[in-house]
Write a structure and sequence with these properties.
The structure is a homodimer. Chain A has a three-stranded antiparallel β-sheet with strand order 1-3-2. The first copy, chain A, starts with 10 loop residues before the first helix and ends with a helix. Chain A is mainly alpha-helical. Chains A and B meet through helix 4, helix 5 and helix 8 of A and helix 4, helix 5 and helix 8 of B. The structure holds a DNA duplex.
DNA sequence: CGCAAGTTTTTTGTCGACATAAATACAAAT
DNA sequence: ATTTGTATTTATGTCGACAAAAAACTTGCG
């Protein structure tokens, strides 16, 4: 629920989303609204009434407006002067653009990570994939865990780049949109096994300290993900057309 | 001056920075503060007092705080809860990170632009370089014009990608930091002629519709720019150490 | 019955004032 | 003289109320 009293749901999110230790109300509102938008609790394109949201979050309109400005910067809401804010609509074009940017940024992160990550970190990454593999074998169709795990994998590589700007971009902005996209398409079976295989190849390239190869593999991996998502969107559109 | 009454100084900026036609005070504050920060009128690391700035800009603290949140998203200021906002400090690491992100994003923009730009647009790009060349021949050492022209060139390619997210990133966020960096290092002679040559190569690749090559050339171009900037920073640091 | 102009209502934009936390200045003690 | 504890000052965080713009509704006219 949007009106829940806790700010961060679990440790995973606490690690991925930067939560100022001493939060201001605007920061809390940003977190809560981002969560509500990503999970679809606030529908795409929905009008965001300032007074109503402030009421629900138990704060004045001042902090809320600051949060909306922040969310606008994260591309989670769109604002029109004198006409209010709406939840972003993830149409085909927007997602296509997002994946292109992601391909560029994650490719670069991967290239740098190949030279910057410690052996121990790369080893950890391999173990993450092991856990990941066991989870797939056990739960089978449950793709959700894979998705979160996948994002974890990608975020670890972003961290490995030691590039704060890349980490911000991939962690705080792109990441939210990605999760939002996942929430829409997660029910359909995803290509977990080929994805895992690609992850393993990437880790292998990192182990060899081959940045160029790691970048190439990551970019292919993301291109594949987009192709998969794109097909799901097509199916959805067909489904909607017939309905 | 910060207290100037006009919002946008010239048409070039009006084209590059997105100014909502019907601006709210927070948007105006964002523009003005961004300008003041980029030009160095507000020094790096300087504390930004809300009451004082609101006074100077002729508005209340509410809109100003929204602007600060926006500027934080643009990486132009850093905020610490309960401790206020400061102008970002462009140290070596930050700039290094910035150029890596820029290399990734502009490389991608260039790759896509090779398939998306119209012949007319590419021709225009060539003419832009012609004007650019004449300007260099005429003004010689005056690097400033080159810098702005260079940014123009890069922005035109970002537009050519037809990717709104790339345009936002490169146009509204990275771009400001870039200009800020330029204001610091513009007095030193820049590598105008090799840069122009590289620009020509990029246009040639675009004409051939060779996205891969265009990306490669753009990435090399930006790597070269970083190398140049990096050396200037080294010199500055040496100069400061002896002073 | 549809459309348009005017009116009411809602919602956004803005400001001023208060509460709270940080920074500062000062004083006393070791 | 330095440091620590306290008091004062300053600045940030927050709220409530007012003004202006947009949206919704009503009413009159073709």
């Amino acid at each position: 629920m949007l009106g829940c009293t806790h700010i961060v749901d679990n440790k995973k999110e606490a690690m991925l989303i930067s939560v100022p230790p001493q939060s201001t109300l605007a920061d809390i509102a940003t977190q809560r609204l981002a969560h509500s938008i990503v999970t679809g609790e606030l529908a795409q394109g929905q009008k965001l009434n300032e007074a109503e949201l402030a009421e629900r979050l138990g704060m004045g309109r001042g902090p809320l407006r600051e949060a909306l400005r922040h969310l606008e910067g994260m591309h989670l809401v769109t604002r029109i002067p004198n006409a209010g804010a709406r939840v972003v609509v993830l149409d085909r074009k927007t997602l296509s653009d997002l994946y292109a940017v992601r391909e560029a940024l994650e490719g670069m992160a991967c290239r740098i990570a190949a030279t910057q990550m410690t052996d121990a970190e790369i080893e950890q990454l391999g173990k993450l994939l092991d856990r990941h593999e066991r989870q797939i074998a056990k739960e089978g169709g449950k793709v959700y865990a894979q998705s979160e795990g996948d994002l974890d994998f990608h975020y670890q590589i972003a961290r490995g780049s030691r590039n704060q700007m890349l980490m911000d971009q991939l962690g705080n902005e792109q990441y939210q949109l990605l999760r939002m996209c996942r929430y829409r398409t997660s029910r359909k079976a995803a290509r977990t096994k080929p994805a895992l295989q690609q992850h393993r190849q990437i880790v292998a390239a990192l182990e060899q300290r081959d940045g160029e190869l790691a970048e190439l593999l990551m970019r292919r991996h993301i291109q594949g993900a987009w192709k998969s998502i794109s097909e799901m969107i097509d199916q959805e559109e067909v489904g909607q057309a017939s309905a």
